[in-house]
């Protein structure tokens, strides 16, 4: 599979943040390359891609933020993607909220006749993607709750009485990470080598997260049905009312596998506005080098 399209014209680079962005003009896909160098060695290198809410017209880096001009509904909009938190970052407690076009809203009006809360649609919401309202108000014991928003003409609608609440409003998106194939890796001199010819059966994979709220894993194995599990990190019987429900996780979450490494694919996914920050993962299993002679 090819990573890039043929007509990449727009490139934005930030040496201070060790990141490069690439895209075509008039498309919604933005490619990124993140790296980390230590002296003369590249310790980290990873590719990713984002799907934006409109078609990209231009982008550039300024300080610690990526600025992108997107076109929605024949209107051009300037979006800011902050690579680091600053004084303008909207967050719940000290955690980022993961929604596109993120903005703060209040002043919702409830109608007992319709059973809905409404508000005039703010300027800048031109996409057809799903809008989400994430409650950050501590006054009414609803902090951390979120709900879908319906666009009805020039108004936004939420089912239920949400009058007096302050929301962070934005477009929902899906974060998805597919883990690479597992191999035994060993340090040989100044290099890390992977034994790709071994016989390796993975028993379990353990995932280590930082700040996290809700995420799900999907285990795909050749010849078997996919297995999906939803993880809500809030400890049982310890849910505090009116709290964010986000934890700095210090527990390794185990995912049973019991299959060959080459038959296994693991995907981590989250659509929740709370973070799901994967710090590390490890595997346990049975390794056999097949007694091959390597020359």
Topology, pairings included?
Elements: E1 10-14, E2 19-23, E3 29-38, E4 41-51, E5 55-62, E6 65-72, E7 75-82, E8 91-92, E9 95-96, E10 100-105, E11 109-111, E12 116-120, E13 131-135, E14 146-152, E15 155-159, E16 167-171, E17 175-178, E18 184-188, E19 191-195, E20 199-212, E21 214-221, E22 227-232, E23 247-248, E24 252-260, E25 264-270, E26 276-288
Antiparallel strand pairs: 1-2, 2-3, 3-4, 5-6, 6-7, 8-9, 10-16, 11-12, 12-15, 13-14, 13-16, 14-15, 17-25, 18-19, 20-23, 20-24, 20-26, 21-22, 21-25
Major sheet strand order:
10-16-13-14-15-12-11
- Helix proportion: under 10%
Terminal CA distance: 30 Å
What overall geometry do the principal axes of the alpha carbons give?
globular
- What structural class is derived from the secondary structure elements? mainly beta
Low-pLDDT residue spans = none
Main sheet record: 7 strands, antiparallel
Strand content: over 45%
How many β-strands, per DSSP? Answer: 26
Mind telling me the C-alpha Rg? 22 Å
Q: Total helix count?
A: 0
State mean pLDDT (0 to 100 scale): 89
Secondary-structure element string: EEEEEEEEEEEEEEEEEEEEEEEEEE
